[in-house]
Design brief:
The chain is an alpha/beta fold. It is built from 16 helices and 17 strands. The chain folds into three domains: 171 residues, NAD(P)-binding Rossmann-like Domain (Rossmann fold, 3-Layer(aba) Sandwich); 162 residues, Dihydrodipicolinate Reductase, domain 2 (2-Layer Sandwich), CATH 3.30.360.10; 84 residues, ACT domain (Alpha-Beta Plaits), CATH 3.30.70. It is 37% helix and 23% strand. Helix 7 runs parallel beside helix 12 and helix 9 packs across helix 10.
Length: 453
């Protein structure tokens, strides 16, 4: 089954330099890798026309050689040694789609050390080891491209780097995890609790057997880290992100949000402030009439606010084999166009600009300034004003107070929408509210995002 790539590849010097084929080695041929092979093969002529030369997959590293042979046939050299692909002299660009942060780091750094460009859809790798990887790429003058790592079929990295290149980015906010968006859509549309919606997502293949990275918000935080770095020119700061998933979200809050004219979405937000950058992932209330609230199922969407272009929004599939392959191949086309030109004309690497934004800190949780939703269990329906008064005593601005619609098995609930207030001040107010005699149980709080210009 093993075929020696040295014997099976045509030496590069036999190709015409002016129109030389871009030779691709791929590590991993699972969902994304197989999709990449199919799309490259199916749209070969169109891709070559747009890239200015042919792009050919010449070598694949995989642990399952027999399965890989069934996908690529005899057209591609196979090996079980990923490092062989990363360092082979006949490979121009390495596509890493195996995942993980350990061996993948070593493969990518080896490829860079051998002067090869890298394309990856591995957001965890870049969020954790991106600083090291991009520094190595700058040193060698090669490209590291990663459009498929952020929002799958949505070309948001290119939008930030190219389409919005003239702009000062003020904030980026996105639904950037398809699994959690599917679960939240089911909780709203079918009245399911979290566990039932997760089980349905797993049964349909939207969620893994171990869905922790998705439902705890970690996957979204990896992607948000890359978005923030591109939007603000700041270093990768995944360790400083505030991350909250949807595992504690209750169906009653989904219903109460609807009652107030909102929908709950797991949102990644990167917002520039005078004192630093907000970098946070959490379930938030979004106005039901807002375009972001209409993003349902496993779809993704990213909204950007910039000074010249204003509000722009990008929408597309949040998962899928060929959807991710579309982004991977778009990066390969960029490499094909830029390979051989002066390094200064390459797509910029993260953090290369030594401007003032690099010094911006990530704001601590207590300093984040937003509106909030509160659900306060009370002993009696006539205690609504006491709750509003308790918040006013703590200088929390109250925009709206209402009683929650009756639900089976749920006692009286007071719903509050606040004006903008720092998280630290709200936490103190909720702590004081919790101690009042009128309050019958834990107070639930969620942030509210208007997503206005």
């Amino acid at each position: 089954m093993y075929r020696d790539p040295v014997e099976s590849l045509e030496p590069l010097h036999h190709r015409q330099a002016a129109i030389r084929t871009l030779c691709v080695g791929m590590i991993g041929i699972g969902t994304v890798g197989s999709g990449t092979f199919r799309v490259l093969a199916r749209n070969r002529a169109d891709i070559a026309a747009r890239a200015g030369r042919s792009i050919e997959l010449v070598m694949v590293a995989t642990r399952n050689l027999e399965r890989a042979a069934g996908i690529v046939g005899d057209s591609v050299a196979l090996t079980a040694d990923a490092m062989h692909v990363a360092t082979h002299p006949d490979v121009d660009v390495v596509v890493e789609v195996a995942g993980g942060t350990g061996p993948a780091r070593d493969w990518v750094l080896a490829a860079i050390a051998h002067g090869k460009h890298v394309v990856t859809a591995n957001k965890a790798l870049l969020a954790v080891h991106g600083a090291e990887i991009f520094a190595a790429a700058r040193e060698k003058g090669v490209i590291v491209a990663y459009e498929g790592a952020v929002a799958v079929s949505i070309p948001i990295i290119k939008a930030l780097r190219e389409g919005l290149a003239a702009n000062r980015i003020e904030w980026v906010a996105g639904i950037i995890n398809g699994t959690t968006n599917f679960i939240l859509s089911k909780m709203r549309d079918e009245g399911l609790d979290f566990a039932a919606a997760l089980a349905q997502a797993q049964a349909l293949g939207y969620a893994e057997a171990d869905p922790s990275f998705d439902i705890e918000g970690i996957d979204a935080a990896h992607k948000l880290t890359l978005l923030a770095a591109n939007a603000f020119g700041m270093p990768l700061r995944f360790a400083d992100a505030q991350v909250e998933g949807i595992t504690a979200l209750q169906g009653v809050d989904v219903a109460c949000a609807e009652q107030l004219g909102y929908r709950i979405k797991l949102l990644g937000v990167a917002r520039r402030q005078a004192a630093g950058v907000e970098l946070r992932v959490q379930p938030v209330l979004v106005p039901a009439a807002h375009l972001m609230a209409q993003v349902n199922g496993s779809m993704n969407a990213v909204m950007v606010k910039s000074d010249a272009a204003g509000l722009t929004m990008y929408y597309g599939a949040g998962a899928g084999s060929e959807q991710t392959a579309s982004a991977v191949i778009a990066d390969l086309v960029d490499v094909a166009r830029l390979d051989g030109v002066h390094a200064a004309q390459h797509v910029p690497h993260l953090g290369v600009h030594a401007h003032a934004t690099n010094a911006l800190a990530v704001l601590p949780r207590a300093a984040v300034h937003t509106s909030h939703y509160l659900r306060v269990p009370v002993h009696a329906l006539d205690q609504i004003q006491a709750i509003a008064a308790g918040l006013a005593e703590r200088k929390v601005p109250v925009r709206q107070v209402a009683l929650a619609a009756e639900r089976p098995g749920v006692g009286p609930q007071v719903l509050v929408l606040t004006g903008p207030v720092e998280q630290g001040a709200l936490d103190l107010a909720v702590h004081a509210l919790q101690a009042r005699a009128e309050v019958a149980g834990p107070v639930t709080t969620l942030r509210v995002e208007s997503l206005e210009g």
